[in-house]
Amino acid sequence: MHRTRDLLVKQRTQVVNMMRGLLAEFGIDIPNGLERALMMAREIVDGAAPDVPPDAVKIVGTLSQQALDLHVRLREIDRDLLVWQRSSDVARRLMTIPGIGPVGATVFAATVGDATQFRSGRQFAARLGLTPLQKSSGGKERLGRITKMGDKYLRKLLIIGMTSLVRRARQRPEAVDPRLVDLLARKPTRVATVAMANKAARVIWR
After folding, report:
1. In this predicted structure, which of 43-47, 89-93, 159-163, 178-182 has the lowest mean pLDDT?
2. CA dist 112 to 30, 100, 201, Å?
3. Do the Cβ atoms of 118 and 127 come closer than 8 Å?
4. pLDDT score, position 141
5. pLDDT digits over 86-123, tens only?
6. CA 205 and chain centroid, separation
7. Distance (Å, whole) CA 206 – CA 200
8. Distance of alpha carbon 196 from alpha carbon 193, whole angstroms
9. What is the dihedral angle through the alpha carbons of 89, 125, 190, 182, rounded to the nearest 10 degrees?
10. Closest CA to 122 of 183, 205, 190, 193
Protein backbone atom coordinates (compact mmCIF):
# COMPACT_ATOMS: atom_id res chain seq x y z
CA MET A 1 0.00 0.00 0.00
CA HIS A 2 2.81 2.41 0.85
CA ARG A 3 4.75 1.75 -2.34
CA THR A 4 1.58 2.32 -4.35
CA ARG A 5 0.72 5.42 -2.33
CA ASP A 6 4.17 6.91 -2.95
CA LEU A 7 3.84 6.29 -6.69
CA LEU A 8 0.38 7.86 -6.84
CA VAL A 9 1.53 10.93 -4.87
CA LYS A 10 4.34 11.45 -7.40
CA GLN A 11 1.95 11.02 -10.32
CA ARG A 12 -0.57 13.45 -8.82
CA THR A 13 2.19 16.01 -8.31
CA GLN A 14 3.36 15.60 -11.91
CA VAL A 15 -0.16 16.01 -13.30
CA VAL A 16 -0.91 19.08 -11.15
CA ASN A 17 2.43 20.67 -12.12
CA MET A 18 1.66 20.06 -15.79
CA MET A 19 -1.74 21.71 -15.33
CA ARG A 20 -0.09 24.70 -13.69
CA GLY A 21 2.52 25.00 -16.44
CA LEU A 22 0.01 24.70 -19.28
CA LEU A 23 -2.42 27.24 -17.85
CA ALA A 24 0.43 29.60 -16.95
CA GLU A 25 1.31 29.78 -20.67
CA PHE A 26 -2.08 31.43 -21.15
CA GLY A 27 -1.70 33.75 -18.16
CA ILE A 28 -3.83 31.69 -15.77
CA ASP A 29 -2.21 31.05 -12.40
CA ILE A 30 -3.38 28.35 -10.02
CA PRO A 31 -2.86 29.52 -6.40
CA ASN A 32 -0.26 27.61 -4.40
CA GLY A 33 -1.37 24.50 -2.57
CA LEU A 34 -2.73 21.13 -3.63
CA GLU A 35 -6.28 21.88 -2.48
CA ARG A 36 -6.45 24.98 -4.68
CA ALA A 37 -5.26 23.00 -7.69
CA LEU A 38 -7.78 20.20 -7.07
CA MET A 39 -10.54 22.76 -6.62
CA MET A 40 -9.78 24.24 -10.03
CA ALA A 41 -9.58 20.74 -11.52
CA ARG A 42 -13.05 19.98 -10.14
CA GLU A 43 -14.43 23.22 -11.61
CA ILE A 44 -12.94 22.40 -15.01
CA VAL A 45 -14.35 18.85 -14.98
CA ASP A 46 -17.74 20.25 -13.97
CA GLY A 47 -17.77 22.46 -17.07
CA ALA A 48 -16.11 25.71 -16.05
CA ALA A 49 -13.70 25.77 -19.00
CA PRO A 50 -10.78 28.20 -18.65
CA ASP A 51 -10.33 30.97 -21.21
CA VAL A 52 -7.86 29.09 -23.42
CA PRO A 53 -8.00 27.71 -27.00
CA PRO A 54 -10.30 24.69 -27.57
CA ASP A 55 -7.42 22.21 -27.94
CA ALA A 56 -5.94 23.41 -24.66
CA VAL A 57 -9.34 23.10 -22.95
CA LYS A 58 -9.46 19.45 -23.94
CA ILE A 59 -5.96 18.74 -22.63
CA VAL A 60 -6.54 20.62 -19.37
CA GLY A 61 -9.80 18.71 -18.92
CA THR A 62 -7.95 15.41 -19.33
CA LEU A 63 -5.30 16.45 -16.81
CA SER A 64 -7.94 17.69 -14.38
CA GLN A 65 -9.82 14.38 -14.47
CA GLN A 66 -6.60 12.43 -14.02
CA ALA A 67 -5.58 14.56 -11.01
CA LEU A 68 -8.98 14.00 -9.39
CA ASP A 69 -8.90 10.24 -10.10
CA LEU A 70 -5.45 9.93 -8.53
CA HIS A 71 -6.61 11.91 -5.51
CA VAL A 72 -9.59 9.58 -5.01
CA ARG A 73 -7.33 6.51 -5.17
CA LEU A 74 -4.97 8.07 -2.65
CA ARG A 75 -7.82 8.76 -0.23
CA GLU A 76 -8.92 5.13 -0.54
CA ILE A 77 -5.42 3.92 0.32
CA ASP A 78 -5.23 6.34 3.25
CA ARG A 79 -8.51 4.95 4.59
CA ASP A 80 -7.20 1.40 4.27
CA LEU A 81 -3.99 2.39 6.06
CA LEU A 82 -6.03 3.92 8.88
CA VAL A 83 -7.95 0.66 9.29
CA TRP A 84 -4.66 -1.27 9.33
CA GLN A 85 -3.17 1.18 11.85
CA ARG A 86 -6.04 0.64 14.26
CA SER A 87 -5.54 -3.13 14.10
CA SER A 88 -1.78 -3.00 14.75
CA ASP A 89 -0.54 -2.68 18.33
CA VAL A 90 2.85 -1.40 17.15
CA ALA A 91 1.31 1.20 14.84
CA ARG A 92 -1.03 2.39 17.60
CA ARG A 93 1.92 2.92 19.95
CA LEU A 94 3.92 4.71 17.25
CA MET A 95 0.98 7.10 16.82
CA THR A 96 1.64 8.40 20.36
CA ILE A 97 4.92 9.96 19.18
CA PRO A 98 4.47 13.67 18.36
CA GLY A 99 4.64 14.24 14.62
CA ILE A 100 3.87 10.62 13.71
CA GLY A 101 0.50 10.18 11.98
CA PRO A 102 -1.26 7.13 10.52
CA VAL A 103 0.89 7.06 7.38
CA GLY A 104 4.17 7.25 9.30
CA ALA A 105 3.05 4.81 11.99
CA THR A 106 1.93 2.17 9.49
CA VAL A 107 4.99 2.38 7.27
CA PHE A 108 7.38 1.95 10.21
CA ALA A 109 5.31 -0.86 11.68
CA ALA A 110 5.12 -2.66 8.32
CA THR A 111 8.65 -2.01 7.07
CA VAL A 112 11.02 -2.15 10.03
CA GLY A 113 9.77 -5.41 11.51
CA ASP A 114 12.06 -6.54 14.33
CA ALA A 115 13.77 -3.43 15.69
CA THR A 116 16.35 -5.57 17.54
CA GLN A 117 18.19 -5.95 14.23
CA PHE A 118 19.57 -2.50 15.07
CA ARG A 119 21.91 -2.28 18.06
CA SER A 120 20.73 1.18 19.09
CA GLY A 121 18.45 4.04 18.23
CA ARG A 122 21.43 5.86 16.74
CA GLN A 123 22.10 2.97 14.38
CA PHE A 124 18.46 3.01 13.34
CA ALA A 125 18.60 6.77 12.70
CA ALA A 126 21.78 6.19 10.67
CA ARG A 127 19.93 3.56 8.63
CA LEU A 128 17.46 6.30 7.68
CA GLY A 129 20.26 8.71 6.74
CA LEU A 130 19.45 11.12 9.59
CA THR A 131 22.85 11.16 11.30
CA PRO A 132 25.35 13.91 10.40
CA LEU A 133 28.52 13.26 8.44
CA GLN A 134 31.68 13.45 10.56
CA LYS A 135 34.54 15.51 9.20
CA SER A 136 37.98 15.69 10.79
CA SER A 137 40.27 18.68 10.38
CA GLY A 138 43.28 19.58 12.46
CA GLY A 139 42.50 16.85 14.94
CA LYS A 140 39.01 18.20 15.51
CA GLU A 141 35.81 16.43 14.55
CA ARG A 142 33.08 18.48 12.95
CA LEU A 143 29.54 17.39 12.18
CA GLY A 144 28.31 18.09 8.66
CA ARG A 145 25.04 17.56 6.87
CA ILE A 146 23.05 14.36 7.31
CA THR A 147 24.16 11.41 5.19
CA LYS A 148 20.81 10.96 3.38
CA MET A 149 21.63 7.28 3.01
CA GLY A 150 19.22 4.41 3.56
CA ASP A 151 15.47 4.36 3.07
CA LYS A 152 14.49 7.65 1.39
CA TYR A 153 10.74 7.07 1.83
CA LEU A 154 10.95 6.52 5.59
CA ARG A 155 13.23 9.53 5.98
CA LYS A 156 10.88 11.70 3.91
CA LEU A 157 7.85 10.75 6.01
CA LEU A 158 9.71 11.57 9.23
CA ILE A 159 10.78 14.95 7.87
CA ILE A 160 7.21 15.70 6.75
CA GLY A 161 5.88 14.72 10.17
CA MET A 162 8.37 16.91 11.99
CA THR A 163 7.67 19.80 9.60
CA SER A 164 4.01 19.55 10.60
CA LEU A 165 5.06 19.60 14.27
CA VAL A 166 7.17 22.71 13.66
CA ARG A 167 4.18 24.42 12.03
CA ARG A 168 2.08 23.57 15.09
CA ALA A 169 4.80 24.95 17.37
CA ARG A 170 4.78 28.22 15.43
CA GLN A 171 1.01 28.56 15.65
CA ARG A 172 0.39 27.18 19.14
CA PRO A 173 3.65 27.02 21.13
CA GLU A 174 1.75 26.15 24.30
CA ALA A 175 0.53 22.89 22.70
CA VAL A 176 3.99 21.36 22.09
CA ASP A 177 7.00 20.34 24.15
CA PRO A 178 8.75 23.49 25.46
CA ARG A 179 12.07 21.97 24.41
CA LEU A 180 10.90 22.12 20.80
CA VAL A 181 10.06 25.81 21.12
CA ASP A 182 13.52 26.39 22.63
CA LEU A 183 15.18 24.45 19.80
CA LEU A 184 13.38 26.53 17.18
CA ALA A 185 14.53 29.70 18.94
CA ARG A 186 18.16 28.57 18.77
CA LYS A 187 18.40 26.81 15.42
CA PRO A 188 17.29 27.47 11.82
CA THR A 189 13.97 25.78 11.07
CA ARG A 190 15.44 23.22 8.67
CA VAL A 191 18.19 22.23 11.11
CA ALA A 192 15.67 21.91 13.93
CA THR A 193 13.35 19.80 11.77
CA VAL A 194 16.10 17.33 10.89
CA ALA A 195 17.24 17.16 14.52
CA MET A 196 13.66 16.35 15.55
CA ALA A 197 13.43 13.65 12.87
CA ASN A 198 16.66 12.14 14.20
CA LYS A 199 15.26 12.10 17.73
CA ALA A 200 11.93 10.68 16.56
CA ALA A 201 13.74 7.83 14.80
CA ARG A 202 15.41 6.90 18.09
CA VAL A 203 12.09 7.01 19.93
CA ILE A 204 10.54 4.81 17.22
CA TRP A 205 13.35 2.27 17.69
CA ARG A 206 12.89 2.31 21.47
Report:
1. 178-182
2. 39, 15, 11
3. yes
4. 42
5. 999 999 999 999 999 999 999 999 888 777 888 888 88
6. 20
7. 10
8. 5
9. 70
10. 205
